[in-house]
Prior knowledge:
- Helix 1 (7-21) runs antiparallel to helix 2 (27-46), helix 1 (7-21) crosses helix 4 and helix 5 packs antiparallel against helix 7.
- The two termini are 41 Å apart.
- The protein has seven helices and no strands.
- It is mainly α.
- It folds into two domains: 7-74; 84-187.
- The model has no long low-confidence stretch (mean pLDDT 82).
Amino acid sequence: MSDQRNPLTVRYLEQLAAALERTLMPQDERDAISREMESHLAEAVSSGARLTDVLERLGSAEDLARAYAVELALNPRPVHQASPWRQVLAVATRTSATLAAGLLVVVMGAVGVAFAVGGVAALLVGLIAPFLPVDWMDPTLRAGLPQLVVVLAGLALLAVGILSIRIVRLNARFLFGALRRDSKEISK
Length: 188
């Protein structure tokens, strides 16, 4: 930056730099915006426009920084193409992560269903067993756990099963969303 700039320009660019610093933009983007604004102001003044009018049309530095941040969020700049080895590594990583997530969905789904079914069965046995005829039950079951323990164990198993199924559902939604995004990326 040259030392012969107008103090209004210097102050506006400093305010813009400070406002851009508060955004989540990468440093190179913030630097590019500052250089672009410095160039824009210099061109406007050299073409005969009054600096105060140009700064007034631009608005506050804070508003301008927010506008740039929104623009960048809505229209991200294209990233340079990665090397072929990085692309292969990215595909391998995505594939292995997808397979691992798919396996987790299947295993946790089976565990969740098994726990939920076991919990319902234990709950039913705990609630119904005292009312069944004595000759319907195996003597070892009659002398087994107290009814309250069986009911509580059934409730615990059912809760763990439902929780596992919820986790599987969230993981499956995430997995299918990632696959959908990847397929859109690949088709571009």
